[in-house]
Amino acid sequence: MACMVCDRAGCDECGNVGLIYIAACPLETIGGDVWNALKFIDLYEKGLPPIAGGALDQAQNFIEAAAIVFGLKQIYRGNIGKNGQARG
Ligand SMILES: [Zn+2]
């Protein structure tokens, strides 16, 4: 499949071939910590942050992880391209 970092352009992550090869179920590579983060991000999106308070009260790495997940959701929903450009 196309490299998720460079979208077939070639980068260090894919060895400049633009593709990544999947030899096992990708879900097996996701650890429990990531699943937990995804659960908290889902709750955060619904207005329930993991730490009481606002966005400035949350851990910086949690906010960054949530931003990545929200961006990926926009891509998968077709609202924006992988380059971040809005789609009409
Ligand atoms: Zn790449």
What gap, in angstroms, lies between the N and C termini? 25 Å
Could you say which structural class the secondary elements and strand pairing correspond to? mainly alpha
Biggest β-sheet description = none
Mean pLDDT: 91
Helix share, percent: 25-40%
**Bound ligands, each once:** zinc ion
Tertiary shape: globular
Low-confidence stretches: none
How many structural domains are formed by the residues? 2
What is the number of strand segments? Answer: 0
N-to-C order of helices and strands: HH
**How many H/I helical runs?**
2
Indicate the proportion of strand residues.
under 5%
| Rg measurement, Å | 16 Å
Can you describe this structure?
The structure is a single chain. With 88 residues, the chain is an all-alpha fold. The chain has helices at residues 32-45, 60-76. The two termini are 25 Å apart. It folds into two domains: 1-26, no CATH class; 31-76. The chain contains two helices and no strands.
Helix and strand arrangement:
Blueprint (H helix, E strand, L loop, with lengths): L31 H14 L14 H17 L12
The structure holds zinc ion.
